[in-house]
From TrEMBL:
It is a multi-pass membrane protein. Key component of the F(0) channel; it plays a direct role in translocation across the membrane. A homomeric c-ring of between 10-14 subunits forms the central stalk rotor element with the F(1) delta and epsilon subunits. F(1)F(0) ATP synthase produces ATP from ADP in the presence of a proton or sodium gradient. F-type ATPases consist of two structural domains, F(1) containing the extramembraneous catalytic core and F(0) containing the membrane proton channel, linked together by a central stalk and a peripheral stalk. During catalysis, ATP synthesis in the catalytic domain of F(1) is coupled via a rotary mechanism of the central stalk subunits to proton translocation. It holds the Pfam family ATP-synt_C. PANTHER family: ATP SYNTHASE LIPID-BINDING PROTEIN, MITOCHONDRIAL, ATPASE PROTEIN 9. This is ATP synthase subunit c. Keywords: ATP synthesis, Cell membrane, CF(0), Hydrogen ion transport, Ion transport, Lipid-binding, Membrane, Transmembrane, Transmembrane helix, Transport. Belongs to the ATPase C chain family. The chain crosses the membrane at residues 6-29, 50-73. One of its GO terms (molecular function) is lipid binding.
Length: 74
């Protein structure tokens, strides 16, 4: 396997990470809505955790996308 092929395969694998982060963000908001609708009094407690979980998951997705682009165009 030559280096160019390995770079393309690595970029594809890193792009999978960005896609999985999108699924994670959807799961976070889905679980938040599930919890908030079952127990509306706990909504205030869960809001901070929702934003923190969203930010961490989205950051990992952005890092994966940047790595994929760096591998694809370097």
């Amino acid at each position: 396997m030559d280096v160019a092929s390995a770079k393309v395969i690595g970029a594809g694998l890193a792009a999978i990470g960005a896609g999985l982060a999108a699924i994670g963000v959807g799961a976070i908001f889905g679980q938040y809505l599930n919890g908030a609708l079952r127990n509306p009094e706990a909504d205030a407690k869960m809001g901070g955790r929702l934003i923190f979980g969203f930010a961490v998951t989205e950051a990992l997705g952005l890092i994966a996308a940047v790595v994929a682009l760096a591998l694809a165009f370097s």
